[in-house]
Amino acid sequence: MTDPHQEIRDIAALTILQKRVTDALAAKKAALADVVVRGTLRALVDPTDPLSPEFGRFEIPTPTKPKPSIVDEDRVVPWALAEFGEVGIVELRLSQQGRKSVVAAAERGVEVPGVEWSEPRAGAPRWVPAKGVDTAFLTDGADLVSLVAAP
Predict the structure, then answer these.
(1) Which of 7, 8, 63, 94 has a 20 to 30 A CA-CA distance from 114?
(2) What share of the chain is helix, strand, coil (3-state, %, to 5)?
(3) Which residues, in sequence order, are bridge partners of residue 59?
(4) Which pLDDT tens digit goes with each residue over 29-69?
(5) Quick check: 41 and 58 in contact, CB under 8 A?
(6) Of 129, 130, 122, nearest to 61 (Cα)?
(7) What is the rounded CA–CA span in Å between residue 24 and residue 126?
(8) By C-alpha distance, which of 42, 51, 46 is closest to 130?
(9) How do beta strands 115-117 and 68-70 pair?
(10) Quick one: DSSP state of residue 96?
(11) Among candidates 57, 61, 101, which has minimal Cα distance to 79?
(12) In angstroms, rounded to a whole number, what is the distance separating the alpha carbons of residues 147 and 17?
């Protein structure tokens, strides 16, 4: 028979372990992202052998590109009316087509009041495990414990 108190203790312990694993993983990704600006690093069973099986890869994708977004529709509507006319662009506010037209104009380099450009964001580092590969060979249990030990 299941002991609910033990189940609760187990859930609490696993929650703490999950947070430690999440924090340790974020720290390892950040450390590797300092070394790898962009691109992919393959993780091989034997890093000295390029023909060794791959058990995953670490990727840092291309940073996002800035893009325009409407931040002040009250300033955009008069501009859109003057630029495109009323048909299909403006109702009581910008229609979906109107929003697309305004953003497209900004993307072409037109100065549109009420439109701002987002800041580019760096690509988020990610680990992609290879499918069907058992990673038990990577480390023994003692090493795993030290990776998530409390600071």
Answers:
(1) 63
(2) 45, 15, 40
(3) 40, 126
(4) 888 888 887 888 888 878 888 888 888 888 888 888 889 98
(5) yes
(6) 122
(7) 14
(8) 42
(9) antiparallel
(10) H
(11) 101
(12) 11
Contact 80, 99 (CB under 8 A): no
Count how many Cα atoms sit within 13 Å of the Cα of residue 27 in the half-sphere of its side chain.
Answer: 9
Task: Report the pLDDT value the prediction gives residue 34, as an integer from 0 to 100.
Answer: 82
Contacts of 138 (CB under 8 A, 6+ apart): 55
Answer left, alpha or beta for residue 85, where phi above 0 means left and psi between -120 and 50 means alpha. left
Q: How far apart are CA 151 and CA 134, in angstroms?
A: 29
Q: Which residue has the higher pLDDT, 96 or 108?
A: 108
E strand residue ranges, 73-133: 115-117, 126-129
- Whole-model pTM over 0.85: no
- Three-state DSSP at 130 gives coil
Q: Which two tokens stand for residue 86?
A: 């009323």
What would the two tokens of residue 13 be?
A: 């312990």
Sequence letter at residue 43 = A
Is 104's pLDDT higher than 90? yes
> How high is the pLDDT of residue 43?
82
